[in-house]
Amino acid sequence: MKGVMIVGISEQVLPIDLYQRLGEQYGTPLYVYDMAVIEQRVADLRQCLHPNVRLFYSMKANPNPSVVRAIYRHGVYSEICSPLELEIALSAGIVPAHILYLGPGKSAAELERLVALGVRYLIVESIQEIALVQKIAGKRGMVAEVGLRINPRETVRGARLKMGGAARQFGIDEDQLPEVLAAARAMSCVRVVGLHGYLGTRILQADTIAANVRCMLEAADRLLAGGLSELRYVGVGGGFGIPYHSGESRLDLEAVALRTRPLFDSFLRRYPDVEVLAESGRFLVAEAGSYLVRVRYTKRSQGVEFAIADGGVHQFAAAGGAGSLVKRNYPIEALVCGRGEQRMYHISGPLCSPDDLIGRGVELPVLQPGDLLAVRQAGAYGLTFSPVLFLSHPLPREVMLANGQAVLVRDIDEYGLPAVREL
Ligand SMILES: Cc1ncc(COP(=O)(O)O)c(C=O)c1O
């Protein structure tokens, strides 16, 4: 039998009865989120970060409006990267003063809306973008405040995906900053008041997080020493990872606290009026989510057992390996009782593509048509990172478990701008 055996790494197995009921009631495929887990992760990250660090939720991880609003209600601001994310945030009750907006390719219309709304942390990523903001603000007869996304000189190792410290489309290289700042100073309708950096994501080592923080705070120090006259905020990024695969261990948050607190303390002692920002998507929501699929058929092909399910990579591309160099399984549970014998399965979806595998060589109880499977760690980069239109299968519903109740937080016909629901 081909394939690797995957040992489940989720801390708790799912309550089978509850998830079976949800599968019956809402149909499968189905995304289920657990608000208690999100609340726990918000509290964990808060406790680990310096009390004066302002935390932002990166909506790209899961832009479901009910998720967004629930997190905001815990005092976490929003980090946003697109016009629809902005509309979702506004419909979820997030005020422009609590929005950090970035992205290397914003349109003129997007910038006009951001300037008109007065988005507080408006991050610009090139000299041409600064000039566009100058033009927009000039037309409105106002001065727009912006933060510069910087690409620091240093590279920090240890992130799965590097967004800075190398040749990147994001931000402005640190070496070019003196020139860019001088050009910005000559513009009368734009004022640089912030700095932002984001060096990488999926980080599981405390040392790497601390190195990122140091890198950004030192860059801010250098710029303040080198002529940046005003600084209201500096964003140090985030990249807090979670374990997905066997062999990966949890990020040690106590170690993160121990290594980063002195850095924040020292910076904030010297610059007490500067607000320090951090952002996180995956860490806050990934472990709260499961993607439920139902087995439709089982078959054997050339010695390999397949379970063919009703959901696949069109709705959870990351579970099939998209975005990773090496395809490794997400934790998968069979929500069945009392079956002793185990077998290794490739779990496919309904697509006409051999790549439609959400698990390869997964050891599970012997499966039958009708069995429910749960792909865990599905709360982040699930639907948002998937080619949902591929083959035009029906879209999945999303349900949130909160306060002992299941709330449908996105119905099949609510793609685009879904309504916000009370939890
Ligand atoms: C600028 C920026 N901020 C935040 C994030 C969110 O990262 P994560 O979900 O790993 O916390 C990303 C992810 O790519 C990013 O590029």
UniProtKB/TrEMBL annotation:
<protein>
    <submittedName>
        <fullName>Diaminopimelate decarboxylase</fullName>
    </submittedName>
</protein>
<keyword id="KW-0663">Pyridoxal phosphate</keyword>
<feature type="modified residue" description="N6-(pyridoxal phosphate)lysine">
    <location>
        <position position="60"/>
    </location>
</feature>
<dbReference type="GO" id="GO:0008836">
    <property type="term" value="F:diaminopimelate decarboxylase activity"/>
</dbReference>
<feature type="domain" description="Orn/DAP/Arg decarboxylase 2 C-terminal">
    <location>
        <begin position="30"/>
        <end position="379"/>
    </location>
</feature>
<feature type="domain" description="Orn/DAP/Arg decarboxylase 2 N-terminal">
    <location>
        <begin position="37"/>
        <end position="286"/>
    </location>
</feature>
<dbReference type="InterPro" id="IPR009006">
    <property type="entry name" value="Ala_racemase/Decarboxylase_C"/>
</dbReference>
<comment type="similarity">
    <text>Belongs to the Orn/Lys/Arg decarboxylase class-II family.</text>
</comment>
<dbReference type="InterPro" id="IPR000183">
    <property type="entry name" value="Orn/DAP/Arg_de-COase"/>
</dbReference>
<dbReference type="InterPro" id="IPR022644">
    <property type="entry name" value="De-COase2_N"/>
</dbReference>
<dbReference type="Pfam" id="PF02784">
    <property type="entry name" value="Orn_Arg_deC_N"/>
</dbReference>
<dbReference type="GO" id="GO:0009089">
    <property type="term" value="P:lysine biosynthetic process via diaminopimelate"/>
</dbReference>
<feature type="active site" description="Proton donor">
    <location>
        <position position="352"/>
    </location>
</feature>
<dbReference type="InterPro" id="IPR029066">
    <property type="entry name" value="PLP-binding_barrel"/>
</dbReference>
<dbReference type="Pfam" id="PF00278">
    <property type="entry name" value="Orn_DAP_Arg_deC"/>
</dbReference>
<dbReference type="InterPro" id="IPR022643">
    <property type="entry name" value="De-COase2_C"/>
</dbReference>
